Amino acid sequence: MNPESRRISEIIGDFTPKQLRVGISVAAAFVVSVASGALWVGETIANTNAVKQETELQVEIGRLQTKYDIAISRIEDSKAEIKQWSAAYGHVNALLDESKLEVMRLSTYLGKADNCAFIHRQIEQTKQEIAGLGSFGFIKGSDEKREKERDVKEEKEHSDLENQLSQLQKQLGTCNK
C-alpha cells in the first residue's frame, strides 16, 4: 500500500491499544506542557509589564511629589513675602499720612505767610499814597475855591487812606493766627 493513499482511520487501526494509550498520554502531556509553558510565558510577560508600569507610575508619582513640594515651598515663601509687603505697605501709608499732614501744615503756613506779605505790601503802598498827598501843592492857583475843594478832597482821601491803613494793620496783626 501506498502510504500517501492511506487514511487516518487505517493508520490508527494499525496501532495496538497499548500504543494508542501511550500515544494519547504523550499527546495530552505535550498539550498540557505547551499550555503550561504558554501560561508561564504569559504570566511572566504580564508580570514584566506590571513591574514596568509600576515603575513608570512610581517615577510619575515622584515627579508629581517634587512639583507639589516646590509649590508648597513657593506658597510658604509667598506668605512670608505677603507679610513683609503688608508691613512695608503699612509703613509707607503711615509715612504718606505724615507727609500729607506736613504738606497741609506747610501750605497753611505758606498761605498765611503770603497773606502777611501781601498785607505788608498793601500797608507800604497806602503809606506811600498818604505821603504823596499834597505833594502837588506847588500848583496853587489864584482860585481859592478850587484850592478849598482840593483841600477838602485831599482831607477825605487822607482820612480814607488812614482808615484803610488802620484796617490793614489790624489784619497784619492777625494774619499768622
What assembly state would you assign to the polypeptide chains in this entry?
single chain
SSE string, helices as H and strands as E: HHH
Percentage beta strand: under 5%
C-alpha Rg, in Å? 61 Å
- By secondary-structure content and strand pairing, the structural class works out as mainly alpha
Number of H- or I-type helical stretches: 3
Please estimate the helix content: over 70%
Apparent shape: rod-shaped
DSSP E strands, number = 0
State the domain count. Answer: 1
Distance between the termini: 148 Å
Largest sheet: none
Given as residue ranges, the uncertain stretches (5+ residues, pLDDT < 50) are: none
Kindly state the mean pLDDT as a whole number? 85
Summarize the structure.
The chain has helices spanning 8-13, 17-132, 144-174. The chain is mostly helical. The protein is rod-shaped and about 185 Å long.
How would you sum up this structure, described in words?
- With 177 residues, the protein is an all-alpha fold.
- It has three helices and no strands.
- It has helices at 8-13, 17-132, 144-174.
- Helix 2 (17-132) runs antiparallel to helix 3.
Which structural traits does this protein have?
177 residues; mainly alpha; 3 helices; 86% helix
